[in-house]
Design brief:
Elements: H1 5-35, E1 39-46, H2 49-57, E2 62-70, H3 79-83, E3 90-98, H4 104-112, E4 122-123, E5 126-127, E6 133-137, H5 140-156, E7 166-169, E8 173-175, H6 183-186, H7 188-197, H8 200-208
Parallel strand pairs: 6-7
Antiparallel strand pairs: 1-3, 1-6, 2-3, 2-8, 4-5
Length: 212
């Protein structure tokens, strides 16, 4: 059956309407998905920030991992100043993540597996207050989860020494110098030599049986 001119026009209008409706529906789905993204921050101090950043930067759901300094009183400290141990700052990594993709609790569990939480003097070859471990919470919910996770690790019997990693309220975070950011990518050989030479990699393999 052939369509007359009038029916053909109606048919074309109908098809255009259907395609427009479908396209608009797909666009709305995309917008809804974007709207559901919930970004949060978490800050971890685990000794040398190169090694902590490299792990979190590669996780699905993590939007950004930035090496920097936090916990002290000196404003806008330099790496050289923090290295003196007199600023009160920790080397740390601030992670921005989508909590609908990866949870804070999961990030805390991953953090434990990157450190020696029993060392009160620093981490591996790096000693000094700036290399001590800590979880800096950004709200009460994070605080409670971190404390519960620490208690669970203590009860697990994984370590025969006390867990000394501190759980502290987050304060001003100062990004480190550009050359420290993404160091595992920009200087991969030096990064790997440091990670192995510091004793971190062998410790993580021995204790956790897996390492990035």
């Amino acid at each position: 059956m052939f369509l007359n001119k009038k029916n053909l026009i109606v048919f074309l209008i109908l098809i255009t309407f259907i395609f427009s409706f479908v396209a608009n529906g797909e666009s709305t789905k995309g917008e809804t998905k974007m709207e559901k993204e919930v970004l949060e921050k978490v800050t971890f101090a685990g000794g040398c920030f190169w090694c902590i950043e490299s792990v979190f930067d590669e996780l699905e759901g993590v939007k950004e991992a930035v090496s920097g300094y936090t916990g002290g009183k000196t404003k806008n400290p330099t790496y050289a100043e923090v290295c003196t141990g007199k600023t009160g700052h920790y080397e740390a990594v601030q992670v921005t993540f989508d909590s609908t993709n990866i949870t804070y609790k999961e990030l805390v569990e991953i953090f434990w597996q990157q450190i020696d939480p029993t060392d009160p003097t620093g981490q591996f070859a790096d000693k000094g207050s700036q290399y001590k471990t800590a979880i800096f919470y950004h709200n009460e919910k994070q605080k409670n989860i971190a404390e519960e996770s620490k208690k669970a690790l203590e009860k697990s019997g994984k370590f025969d020494k006390p867990i000394v990693t501190e759980i502290k309220k987050a304060s001003a975070f100062y990004p480190a110098e550009d050359y420290h950011q993404n160091y595992y990518k920009t200087c991969p050989i030096r990064y790997q030599n440091y990670k192995i030479g510091s004793g971190r990699e062998s410790f993580l393999k021995r204790v956790w049986e897996k390492v990035k």
